[in-house]
Write a structure and sequence with these properties.
Number of strands: 14
Largest sheet: 8 strands, mixed
Order of helices and strands: EEHEEHHEEHEHEEEEHEHEEHH
Shape: globular
Structural class: alpha+beta
Bound molecules: N-(5'-phosphopyridoxyl)-D-alanine
Strand order of the largest sheet: 9-8-7-14-13-10-11-12
CATH architecture of the largest domain: Alpha-Beta Barrel
CATH topology of the largest domain: D-amino Acid Aminotransferase, Chain A, domain 2
Radius of gyration: 20 Å
Length: 297
């Protein structure tokens, strides 16, 4: 396996980062997770755009132009001969002396890891996952804005530990006002009385790329969609609940700490529509940009 490290593709055993890297020392950095379907990176432009936004929000200059970065991502994929893959693009502040000052780090560290995509068990999609409402509150957007997809993931990890201890798969966090936000690695939707609901960006969440796609698809399917401020009671009284992210796509939730749900028609329909969207996207990219997705960069 080859890993992209600061402009070079190196065997994974040689892909090491300094113990003085501020990503390691302080969680100072950002990342994106992408999914590759049949050799095409789904929504690459959106992921790259969000990476640059995260960089800008932490005052980090990515040492590559967007096109060069996109080519590097594809080159990593191709070097590993992968067609269905998981991609992780990380940019840390880089190596520097001890201390918080970002100016101690002259060069950011850029890493791209491509791995074969390991499918989630089908039974999870058939039976749904369990989710708790965590006692850990989501970072205040005025403190560490969840729109920064940062390496500093302790907030989410604490909620995930709580979920694990409770025997649950995921945890949804509330914000400081007690409003629903998001899961530890996903966005959350619920359906009730003919309306699809999801917490709005103002609640302090990552604007998930999958979330955006699902909202568009639901509108296209003539569903009523409401982004807003909701409480845990709203989720407990919902008819259907599901979570979304790049790797899970649409995953049904069958129970929370207080309620149980059927894997309903809305969840099934939206997952089907998402799959169709992925297929159409892959076909479009192959038709329009053979030089990018193919092997002849
Ligand atoms: N996580 N919210 C959080 C906190 C996330 O970490 C993620 C993604 C999402 C969904 O975003 P998207 O739909 O763009 O994948 C929401 C990725 C998968 C990760 O951490 O690897």
């Amino acid at each position: 396996m080859y890993v992209y490290l600061n402009g070079k593709l190196v065997p994974s055993k040689e892909a090491s980062v300094s113990v003085f890297d501020h990503g390691f020392l302080y969680g100072d950095g950002i990342y994106e997770t992408m999914r590759v379907y049949d050799g095409v990176i789904f929504k690459l432009d959106e992921h790259i755009k969000r990476l640059y936004r995260s960089a800008s929000l932490i005052g980090l200059t990515i040492p590559l132009e967007t096109d060069a970065l996109k080519i590097s991502v594809y080159e990593t994929l191709i070097a590993n001969s992968l067609r269905n893959a998981y991609l992780r693009l990380t940019v840390s502040r880089g190596r520097g002396a001890l201390g918080l000052n970002p100016e101690l780090c002259p060069e950011p560290t850029v890493v791209i890891i491509a791995q074969k995509f390991k499918e989630y068990p089908k039974t999870l999609y058939q039976n749904g996952i369990s989710m708790i409402v965590s006692s850990i509150r989501r970072n205040l957007k005025e403190a560490i804005n969840p729109q920064i997809k940062s390496l500093n993931f302790l907030n989410n990890i604490l909620a995930r530990i709580e979920a694990k201890r409770a025997g649950a798969y995921e945890a949804i966090m509330l914000n400081a006002n007690g409003e629903l936000t998001e899961g530890t690695v996903c966005n959350v939707f619920f359906y009730k009385s003919g309306v699809l609901y999801t917490p709005s960006l103002e609640c302090g969440i990552l604007d998930g790329i999958t979330r955006g796609t699902i909202i568009d698809l639901a509108i296209r399917e003539y569903m009523k969609v409401k982004e807003g401020r909701f409480t845990k009671e709203d989720i407990y009284s919902a008819e259907e609940v599901f979570i979304t992210n790049t790797t899970l796509e649409v995953m049904p939730v069958s129970k929370t700490d207080k309620s149980e749900y059927n894997i309903g028609n809305v969840t099934k329909l939206l997952h089907k529509a998402y799959r169709k969207e992925v297929n159409a996207y892959v076909a479009d990219v192959k038709a329009e940009e053979p030089s990018i997705w193919g092997l002849n960069i």
